[in-house]
Write a structure and sequence with these properties.
This is CoA transferase. GO terms for molecular function: catalytic activity. It comes from Alexandrium catenella. This protein has 369 residues and is of the alpha/beta class. The chain has 3 domains: 137 residues, Rossmann fold; 78 residues, formyl-coa transferase, domain 3 (2-Layer Sandwich); 53 residues, no CATH class. The chain has a 3-stranded parallel beta sheet, with helices on both faces. A 3-stranded antiparallel beta sheet has the order 4-5-6, covered by helices on one side. A hairpin with a 5-residue loop joins strand 4 and strand 5. Helix 6 crosses helix 7 and helix 9 packs across helix 12.
Length: 369
């Protein structure tokens, strides 16, 4: 929640409450973009489909991000991250091929890849509107994004009819770039021959000059043919000294290399803090490290990284500043249950109202009912 929802304002409105609709319509009229990730058709049933919203704001970019896309036999089904990791082929690829146990990435790959794809196309739609003056409906999906981001694996497998099926970790026998354990138990990753001119510099830096003339490794074709031998030699050499020793040697000759870090190491590594890729924030529970903004703008700097809002924290601000509602109108929404789902067993006080000045007014009025 703290990393994904920061920088947003949070408002509670019950879309099934008629009393909420004047505020909803004002928000649609004000907005550049409406984003939703319900199952296909949910907002249509609520009266918030694209055609409904287009009548209120013709310039609106209406953006739907479903699990499986708007068409086909799976269009109306719901999804979560691991469902699309599995269906997109990512889990099979991570597990080493179709004959092996699938492996799922733990950092919400489909959720975040789907969001990146979604954000890119929203930006493209906004740019198109600058030229046309018209809004449009944009439809993306987790599944589509995950397949697209795996093009480097999917396309060769589709072309050849074969998929890697050795059960080994990705890149284990890749001569161009891979990861190796070192003498102190730590790991590094390097690209010893991604480009041919790296190879001689690499071999001399790590003391493996004999590989330059070895019939099994003297050119790229031989190295691929003898990839197991290639890895055996490099792995044995790297285990002779600590990771930082080898990184220093390879940096000196400009061969791409880096440490394989865990999250604790990332939190203290100077490269991340220097670029604000990792930063510190504070919420009601204390200070903690979080990810920063992975971009730098020369003319419009990003605002300082903050924390996620409480549910409904900005309800009053948004209703007042964007919807133009006064205190009495906002109080009326709360009393009509329009800012929180209406519960059959009685009134549920909205979370946000607890910190606002009219709480006592609502409580007093309710006590008289």
């Amino acid at each position: 929640n703290e990393s994904i929802n920061r920088g947003k304002r949070s408002i509670e409105l019950d879309l099934k409450s008629p009393a909420a609709w004047p505020a909803v319509e004002r928000l649609i009229k004000w907005a550049d973009v409406l984003v939703e990730n319900y199952k296909v058709g949910v907002l249509d049933r609520l009266g918030l489909g694209y055609e409904d919203c287009k009548k209120i704001n013709p310039r609106l970019i209406y953006c739907a991000n479903s699990g499986f896309g708007p068409e086909g036999p799976w269009a109306l089904r719901g999804s979560f991250d691991v469902v699309c990791q599995g269906m997109s082929g990512a889990a099979v690829a991570q597990g080493g091929g179709p004959a092996h146990t699938p492996r799922f990435c733990e950092w919400g790959t489909a959720d975040q890849v789907g969001a990146l794809n979604f954000a890119f196309h929203i930006a493209a739609a906004l740019f198109a509107r600058e030229k046309s003056g018209q809004g449009q409906k944009l439809e993306c999906s987790q599944l589509g994004a995950m397949v697209q981001f795996q093009a480097i694996g999917f396309v060769p497998a589709s072309f050849s009819g074969e998929q890697r099926n050795d059960g080994r970790p990705t890149n284990a026998d890749n001569i161009l770039l891979s990861y190796y354990p070192c003498g102190d138990g730590k790991w590094l990753t390097c690209a010893p021959c991604m480009e041919e001119h790296f190879w001689a510099r690499f071999c001399k830096a790590v003391g493996l000059e004999e590989l330059l003339t070895d019939e099994r490794t003297k050119n790229q074709g031989r190295r691929w043919k003898n990839s197991a031998y290639f890895r055996e030699r490099l792995e044995a050499r790297f285990k002779e000294m600590p990771r930082d020793h080898w990184i220093e040697k390879l940096v000196e000759v400009d061969v791409p290399v880096g440490p394989v870090l865990d999250y604790a190491e990332i939190a203290t590594h100077p490269q991340f803090s220097a670029n604000d890729y990792v930063t510190e924030v504070e919420n009601q529970y204390g200070r903690f490290k979080t990810v920063g903004v992975a971009a730098r703008y020369s003319g419009t700097p990003a605002p300082p990284v903050g924390v996620a809002a409480d549910l409904g924290e900005h309800t009053e601000d948004v209703l007042r500043d964007i919807c133009g509602m006064g205190p009495s109108d906002i109080r009326a929404l709360a009393e009509a249950h329009a800012t929180t789902p209406n519960r059959k067993n009685g009134y549920k006080e909205p979370h946000w109202i607890k910190v606002h000045k009219w709480k006592s007014h609502v409580a007093e009025k309710r006590s008289r009912l």
